[in-house]
Amino acid sequence: MATATQTIPMEKSVAAYVAKPRLMLINGKWVPAASGKTFPTYNPSTGEILCQVAEGDKEDIDRAVAAARAAFDKGPWRNFTPSERGRIVWKLADLLEKHAEEFAQLESLDNGKPITMSRIADIPTSVDQLRYYAGWATKIEGNTIPISAHGAKFLAYTLREPIGVVGQIIPWNFPLVMATLKLAPALAAGCTVVLKPAEQTPLTALMLGELVQEAGFPDGVVNIVTGYGETAGAALAAHPNVDKIAFTGSTEVGKLIVHAAAGNLKKVSLELGGKSPNIVFQDAEIESAIPGAANAIFFNQGQVCCAGSRLYVEDKQFDKVVEGVSQLASKIRLGPGMESTTQMGPVVSEEQMNRVCSYLESGFSEGAKAVVGGSREGTKGYFVKPTVLVNTNEKMKVVREEIFGPVVTVMPFSDVDDLVARANNTPFGLAAAVWTRDIKKAHRIASELRAGTVWINCYGVLDSAMPFGGYKQSGWGREMGHEMLNLYTEVKSVCTPIS
Ligand code: NAP
Ligand code: MG
Question: Is the model's pLDDT at 231 over the cut of 90?
Fold first, then answer.
């Protein structure tokens, strides 16, 4: 049955929110950039300006870091009990849940993603992350250590303390999810934060700042500075009074962050790009592997760091899988983020659309063939057709580099050992998947793949409780789960003679 398309009417509060230039949150106050400058954020479904936002730079980062430093060193935050910290993070989750529809709309307007996805994926995930880490605030423990030093008997124990002032730099693919994934564990651990959202999608992080105020975080605990990466982001990464940088984005910028952090040797965690292999064996349940493979690459317009962008299919099933994924791709309804029937929105920006299209051109020039898609859709907004590329091999740029768009390269395989070598033949190591009914084979391949997450007979399952992060050039450290608390705490050993 065909579903009637309906443009979701903007909530009054959202329309009012984007009607005014948005300010930054520094030391508990909404302030313009010191320079007075603003920059536009666009609605990628139309290409039109959505809202003006304060253009923070080094001077604003200095102000925000000073506020976060004072709130950490002298402020009330570090004297909050773990239970009080947990309660306030939980309160932020409740407030976000209460305003879920406004956030879903603002996310779809700013990023372009389908409103149905913002509603069922982005906003509930953010709420869940806040609650998950709110629970951890009271469970961050050290150990007692039975040491064997000579002489007296000792009592030795460890304390797990907040790392201090944290700079967090996030991308545009899941703007609010990235903001809460960064804020929640840092705040639960007792850190103070300066958050820099991506220039393309600053709005939901700023609107979350309103709720941060309402939840009752003391001034300076959460600061949100909007601006460009090369100015605001770089100043934050290099800042001598920042104790740690947590970054999600491209591997290229991740390397710049590492260099910038060298000045004061601040701690760094990185969640970077990927080119994840999705492997379908001939003994797989093909009826689930085909939609699984399509969803692995087309979800969120392909703008997912762990997207299944290299699809390896065992010879005998190759044609069937290519045909199945291509059929699903051709049926995906492209449309503006705010339309109720849209299944795939635009990519985030004109720049990203051009980047994806230039990868397609490069693929074609090297001999790749598009079974479906292969170009931009329409002339208004930044739409790219879901694309299935065949005649591809590991020498091609489209197979080696992260495209970050709705483009999958499909390659056949016959020999399993050779397949593992091909799957691992990448500078990345974020994720991988294996589809097979053979349980021994599944776990053997899972152990041989050099990736931070391996899915068996599923794809893209992420959970606040399950660690996520990259081998090789996909990153440093693990986010989500209790592993993430290690990113925001220092371990202190304390030891005293007791005899
Ligand atoms: P990006 O440049 O890595 O952006 C990520 C964040 O880093 C943004 O907040 C950005 O600020 C900031 N930034 C940029 N240059 C910086 C610098 N020199 N110092 C400190 N911070 C800096 O990503 P992008 O240009 O938006 O996207 C490019 C490619 O990165 C994509 O095509 C994709 O391959 C990859 N990517 C990966 C992920 C992921 O989740 N792993 C996410 C997004 C993009 P501004 O946005 O304000 O410039
Ligand atoms: Mg935008």
Answer: yes
Report the CATH fold assignment for 12-272+476-493. Answer: Aldehyde Dehydrogenase; Chain A, domain 1 (3.40.605)
pLDDT tens, residue by residue, 316-342? 999 999 999 999 999 999 999 999 999
In the residue annotation, 351 being an active-site residue is answered as no
Residue 305 is a catalytic residue = yes
Fold designation for 277-466: Aldehyde Dehydrogenase; Chain A, domain 2 (3.40.309)
pLDDT by residue (tens digit) across 405-420?
Answer: 999 999 999 999 999 9
State in Å: Cα 106 to ligand 2 middle: 10
Q: φ and ψ at 33, to 5 degrees?
A: -65, 145
Q: Ligand 1: which residue has its CA nearest to atom 28?
A: 250
CA of 111 to the centre of ligand 2 (A): 5
Which residue, among 242, 232, 307, has the nearest Cα to 269 in the 3D structure? Answer: 242
pLDDT tens readout for residues 362-401: 999 999 999 999 999 999 999 999 999 999 999 999 999 9
pTM: 0.98
List every span in the chain annotated with CATH 3.40.605.10: 12-272+476-493
Q: Which of these, 407, 349, 376, 402, lies nearest to 111 by C-alpha position?
A: 349
Cα–Cα separations (whole angstroms), residue 242 to 38, 67, 264, 418: 25, 11, 8, 46
